[in-house]
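re: ur question from earlier - yeah i can do the single chain one, its not a big deal. heres the input i used so u can compare w yours
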Amino acid sequence: MNCAEPFWTVERLQGSVSALLTAPEPKPEVARLARVHTVTTPGLVLGSTQKLNIVDPARAAVAGVEVLRRRSGGGSVLLWPGLQVWVDLFITPSDPLWSDDVGLAAGWIGKLWKAALLPCLSENEPELVSLHTGRAQADRWGRLVCFAGRGPGEVLVGEHKVVGVSQRRSRNRARFQTTARIGAWSSEPSESKLNESKLSEVDLLDLTEADRESGQAVVAARCGNVAADAEAVTESLLSALAKF
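and the output i got, formated as tokens:
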């Protein structure tokens, strides 16, 4: 999948989730753009079709989490400073990486992230890495929480999803929003400790306590993280990107 041109332009942005989500579109002369986001405050980002009333505003306020909606689809994603690598990738229809088939369009994203993560995994983990292909798989929890479902181009280590992907397409560009969970994300239910960074999306949703307990178990079983720091994963991704 090597191609000499177009080259990738890399931008690094830092700020609140709301500021990063509303950053300007790439300039017309930029054919390929990789935009690396560093969040400075936590935010719960809903998919474009999700309603704000799925969130418990009191719980979000106690946790100090901003609630927003992105323009791409899928379930909610909780972003926390230092606990993910969030990179948006923009390409144009003339790009060799472009596919008119939405179901296949993110295939290269999964290959890119797999190549980026392999050097960052522990000794026995690389053989467990897989890419989801085919249609999206999402039950109730997968529709509510991005990392509890599986979509094309997303990366798993064993049964745990570690990279989420959503996309938005227009006549002029495709934008792939990608997030890899890293560091100290807990694999255990957080017991609603809303003042800690180990909470999950489920802690912030408007649910009964019974449903919350069920959701926490699902998240623990399906969601994972890569035990590496953000800078190492980012540099590995950008190095891998140069080969695409």
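The chain has one domain: 8-241. not sure if urs matches, ping me
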